[in-house]
Design goal:
alpha/beta, Rossmann fold, single chain, 5 strands
Length: 143
């Protein structure tokens, strides 16, 4: 299965490790633009955090047209795997951009998998309505 990894960029290192595990069990994996750059050493998680802190991450996103880039990526995949870890004091955090990408996958009728349980956030009902399969870190549940 071809799977798009979807997550906060703060989880880039975890994504790289999970990509390797998915590939080991025979899946093809697509990563977001920035994680590809991080994997190659052209960008760092710290640089991303700095851009966010200083309010110019949107400039980076716009310059690369990353929202459309990720939409096009998801169109080519069979499923998405949302990597939702704890962040900002929220268990299993899912941020705004990840929510958009989950919505893209839902509308495109892709399979939606969550690494961890659905978080308790302002948009929990919307997340539940997209009917993700929570795999609780068990890759064998991706079918």
């Amino acid at each position: 299965m071809k799977i798009a990894l979807i997550h906060s960029l703060d989880f880039a290192q975890e994504a790289i490790e999970i990509r390797k595990k998915l590939q080991q069990v025979g899946h093809e994996v697509s990563e977001c633009y920035s994680v590809t750059k991080i994997s190659k050493g052209d960008l760092s998680v710290q640089k991303v955090k700095d851009m966010k802190e200083f309010g110019n991450f949107s400039d980076y996103t716009i310059s690369k047209d990353l929202i459309k880039w990720n939409y096009e990526r998801i169109k080519k995949d069979d499923a998405i795997l949302v990597l939702n870890f704890d962040k900002k004091g929220i268990k299993n955090y899912i941020g705004g951009n990840t929510l958009l990408e989950i919505g893209f996958a839902y509308v495109l009728e892709k399979k939606i998998f969550f690494w961890n349980d659905i978080p308790d956030m302002f948009y929990t009902d919307e997340l539940k309505a997209m009917q993700p399969v929570v795999i609780k870190q068990k890759l064998i549940l991706i079918k």
